Amino acid sequence: MKPDNPQAFPSVTPEVTCYVEQGMTLRDYFAAKAMQGMITGKPGLGFDLTARQSYQIADAMLKEREND
Length: 68
Description:
The chain is built from two helices and two strands, in the order ββαα. The protein is mostly helical.
C-alpha cells in the first residue's frame, strides 16, 4: 500500500495477535464519492467514462492532500 493512498476505514481487531482489516483505499473512497455526484448530476455518461473520470478526480484529491 502506497503511503499517499492510505486505507479509508482501517480497523484493528484486538486479539492475541493484532489483525488489521485493510478496507478500501482512500483513493477508492474518493472515486466512489466523485462517481456518486457525477451520476446524480449527469446521468448517462457511460460506465467507462464515469469510472475513469471518477479516479481522475480521486487522484487530484490525493495530490491536493500532499500540499497541506
